Amino acid sequence: MREITRGLEFPEGPIAMPDGSVLLVEIKRGTLTRVRPDGRTEVVAECGGGPNGAAIGPDGAVYVCNNGGFEWHEQGGFLVPGHQPESYRGGSIQRVDLGSGRVETLYTECDGHPLRGPNDLVFDRHGGFWFTDHGKTRPRDRDRTGVYYARPDGSAIREVIFPLDAPNGIGLSPDGTRLYVAETWTGRVWGWEVVGPGELAFPPALGPQTGVLVAGLPGYQLLDSLAVDGAGNVCVATLINGGITVMSPDGSSIEHVPTDDPLTTNICFGGNDLRTAYVTLSGTGRLAAMEWPRPGLRLAY
Questions:
Q1: Residues 236, 189: contact at Cβ < 8 Å?
Q2: How confident is the model over 240-269, as pLDDT tens digits?
Q3: Measured torsion, CA atoms of residues 255, 260, 262, 267, in degrees rounded to the nearest 10
Q4: Across the chain, which distance is largest between two alpha carbons, in Å?
């Protein structure tokens, strides 16, 4: 693992760009930031709140899940997000124009229910995107949230899965027929069959919120964001036991690639052969890269 840059304020949502740079968010700083291959950084846009997951859309813009912000703490030399802050005004989905840096808010609610803490998103090949709402925590309670599907022009949003326990990472299988979601607190990854844009096939007897359990991790391990590789494995950033946990599509094979940061939060794939894994080491404010044994999955856009 090689360090590309440090000094970031809780990086997340990495996007490997064709020019070798990596776009990512700095949640504490409230920005969308570009990291050059030599480690230089520049602010692309001021998103405010708490920009979290990010992805390139069909129009070439960056779409950002904004969780609304956190309280922040230093614990044992690591930067750690905490409860919903006093400055919190709600969560949103934002669109960032890469040329101008202009930030546009697309969604703040669905069917009258406010978005609480949008976290991660993935575009399908129909041009829409799935996203998770992780919710917010307060000293005595936390939100119940789920998974949504929306159009990038701001014209339509709907809740597809509810409730889940702090849904975080989200991704699609290589053929787009399976949706994966990681729950943070349970350490579980769930899968659903995708039957159309924003449509899932639910197990009839179990109810709409229940998918097929891909895998659950033993002991005290929490799950963050994820990416799917070209072979269909789910590569999910793992908290506490810092690293990337790689799960086969049926959960029969699980391996752990360790890092040196217990707050390892996300992974994306880049390079000409998609064998370079970029990993956000958020507790220590770094972006790192490593060679990956399998090619990553080329995203829709």
A1: yes
A2: 999 999 999 999 999 999 999 999 999 999
A3: -60
A4: 54
Q: How far apart are CA 162 and CA 43, in angstroms?
A: 35
Long-range pairs, 57-60, Cβ under 8 A, ≥24: 57/95, 57/123, 57/127, 57/129, 57/152, 57/301, 58/123, 58/127, 58/152, 58/300, 58/301, 59/152, 60/98, 60/301
Closest-CA residue to 68 (of 82, 88, 53): 88
| Residues in the chain, pLDDT under 50 | none
- 271-294, pLDDT tens digit by residue? 999 999 999 999 999 999 999 999
Using the 8-state DSSP alphabet, how is residue 238 labeled? E
Residue whose pair of structure tokens reads 């159009």 in the numeric block: 151
Q: Could you give the CA distance from residue 220 to residue 262 in angstroms, rounded to a whole number?
A: 12
Amino acid letter, residue 106: L
**CB contact at 8 A, 280 and 265:** yes
Determine if the peptide bond prior to 163 is cis (ω within 30°): yes
Cα Rg of the chain, angstroms? 17
User: Degrees (nearest 5) of the Cα angle 229, 294, 254?
Assistant: 70
The DSSP H or E segment spanning 263 is none
Buried b (16+ CB within 10 A) or exposed e, 161-189: beebebbbbbbbbeeeebbbbbbbebbbb
Instruction: Give all domains of the chain, ordered by start, each with its CATH number.
Output: 22-231 (2.120.10.30)
Amino acid identity for residue 109 in this structure: E
Beta strands in 47-177 (DSSP E): 51-56, 62-66, 72-75, 78-81, 92-96, 103-107, 109-110, 113-114, 118-123, 129-133, 137-138, 141-142, 145-150, 157-164, 167-172
